[in-house]
Amino acid sequence: MEHEIDLIVIGWGKGGKTLAGTMARAGHRVAIIEASPDMYGGTCINIGCVPTKALIHDADIRPGNGFDPGYFDEAVRRRDKLSAAMRAKNFFMLDGLDSVITITGRASFVSPRRIRVVAGEEILELDAKRIIINTGAVPAIPDLDGVQIGGRIHDSTTLQHAPLPGTLVVVGGGYVGTEFASMFAHFGSKVIVLDRGPRALKEEDEDIAAEVLGALNDVGVEVRVGASVQRIGQDADSAMVHYEQDGHVRAIEADAVLIALGRTPVTDGLNLEAAGIELTESGAIKVEERLSTSAEGVYALGDVNGGPQFTYVSLDDNRVVADAILGSGQRSTADRVAVPYTIFTTPPLARVGLSEDQARSRGLAIKIAVKKVPEIAAMPRPKIVGDPRGIIKFVVDADSDRILGAALMHVDSQEVINLVALAMRQGVTSATLRDSIFTHPSSTEALNEVLGSFNR
Ligand SMILES: Cc1cc2nc3c(=O)[nH]c(=O)nc-3n(C[C@H](O)[C@H](O)[C@H](O)COP(=O)(O)OP(=O)(O)OC[C@H]3O[C@@H](n4cnc5c(N)ncnc54)[C@H](O)[C@@H]3O)c2cc1C
Ligand SMILES: NC(=O)c1ccc[n+]([C@@H]2O[C@H](COP(=O)([O-])OP(=O)(O)OC[C@H]3O[C@@H](n4cnc5c(N)ncnc54)[C@H](O)[C@@H]3O)[C@@H](O)[C@H]2O)c1
């Protein structure tokens, strides 16, 4: 069976599915190929952002404390219902368009313009003028003795469907590691995080990292740094994690172990050589600033191209490619300014731009406004919702008064950071932001006070 198509999208990620819809609505014939019926809509809605944040929310509002598997199971059921509804909606948003063919199967290149799809017993080949690779990333599993996903050893996907562990060891203190540590501790698990780095959250200023670690500590999470895992054993009763720290070999027993050591771009099985598509040294698909690969007409979007691994970056990748194909060709990844991020520990840490350490190491003339949330009088919202912990810090250019960066750790910070990022993009000064009218009671109004007090 053969088809002539304008655009083939491999993988149903955020960027690919959005571009597929845009191209179809602009009158192009589009085929989108997804390997698994459980993954229509991609990582974010099925196994990533949305399901984990639903669980985090339910963990946070859990009445009482202690170990409560029944409550966890109920939260998992609610999460599954939410993901199933979003998956169905995502599928029909494209399947319902006349000019889109949706195919469930595994795609690989035959040549730069020809794709083979293996769908069960069936094999089909499609030709297209343009091809989009949007295959995402999967958990990186280190080549260590006994470390493979199965039984009591989990990645972020399998742990979300395992019984609530009494004791959880998390290997890796990055995004997944800290979010899962916070979440499982709020569900009542005893959590120990092992990270081989010199300190946890090493990209963040020490005062900010200390606040996040304090919040983890409040729910009993123990973070052990300089800890390098050597091997993991398991039997019917427990897992045993062996690690080296300060020259000593130590071991911890756990009901479950989470491997959270980063995510690797999915390129295996795509037969990229057949299309002359090159990889970077770290195994991502090599792209230039308009996301073209080394094969003409082939683009790579999202986690697979080695950019920052966030859903909204994949979405913006789609804008860059849509502009290249349908628009003026002016957009590129180089024009992104002030891309924020949030780590959904409780309360969340939201960041944008430079940290104080980064600004100082660049020799910039800066002024710093920093205040702990309990000391901010004009910010009743965290007290209203019962969690007055946190810290707010702004890094501001001493001459121009423009905002260079911010770290917000408090309830609602995942929302407030988007306002700060917009202010940075528009060159709004800290004085203008300080004197803005904000609703009350909100978390945003803290900016009236924090930006009025430069401490150093
Ligand atoms: C636990 C967790 C929590 C996260 N939380 C957040 C968060 O809060 N905020 C945030 O912004 N980001 C978060 N992320 C990251 C975010 O999920 C990813 O950056 C984003 O989903 C990447 O999207 P993508 O467009 O690259 O592709 P994906 O959404 O990963 O989609 C790729 C698709 O391609 C399919 N595929 C792969 N190979 C083939 C093939 N050969 N043929 C056909 N189909 C194929 C896969 O099955 C998959 O469905 C989280 C990630 C994880 C794991
Ligand atoms: N809220 C969000 O936006 C969100 C949430 C989850 C995931 N994500 C995305 O998914 C990506 C993957 O997350 P992740 O947490 O798996 O990776 P990560 O890169 O954020 O963190 C990996 C951590 O593991 C540590 N490490 C690496 N090798 C080690 C070893 N052998 N022993 C001990 N520690 C080791 C690193 O020092 C690092 O702290 C993130 O980079 C992020 O882009 C985003």
Detail the topology: elements first, then pairings.
Layout: E1 2-10, H1 14-25, E2 30-34, H2 42-46, H3 49-60, H4 69-95, E3 100-104, E4 106-111, E5 114-119, E6 122-133, E7 137-139, E8 153-154, H5 156-159, E9 167-171, H6 175-186, E10 190-195, H7 206-218, E11 222-225, E12 227-234, E13 239-245, E14 248-254, E15 256-259, E16 263-265, E17 298-300, H8 311-326, E18 341-343, E19 349-353, H9 356-361, E20 366-372, H10 381-384, E21 391-397, E22 403-409, H11 413-425, H12 430-434, H13 446-450
Parallel strand pairs: 1-2, 1-6, 2-3, 6-17, 8-15, 9-10, 9-15, 10-11
Antiparallel strand pairs: 4-5, 5-6, 7-16, 12-13, 13-14, 18-19, 19-22, 20-21, 21-22
Bound molecules: flavin-adenine dinucleotide and nicotinamide-adenine-dinucleotide.
Describe this structure in words.
By secondary structure, the chain is α/β, with parallel strands linked by helices. The protein folds into three domains: 208 residues, FAD/NAD(P)-binding domain; 109 residues, 3-Layer(bba) Sandwich (FAD/NAD(P)-binding domain); 110 residues, FAD/NAD-linked reductase, C-terminal dimerisation domain (Enolase-like, domain 1). The protein is 29% helix and 27% strand. The strands form five sheets. Strands 1, 2, 3, 4, 5, 6 and 17 form a seven-stranded mixed beta sheet that branches. Strand 1, helix 1 and strand 2 form a beta-alpha-beta unit. Helix 1 runs parallel beside helix 8 and helix 3 packs antiparallel against helix 4. It is globular. 44% of the residues are buried.
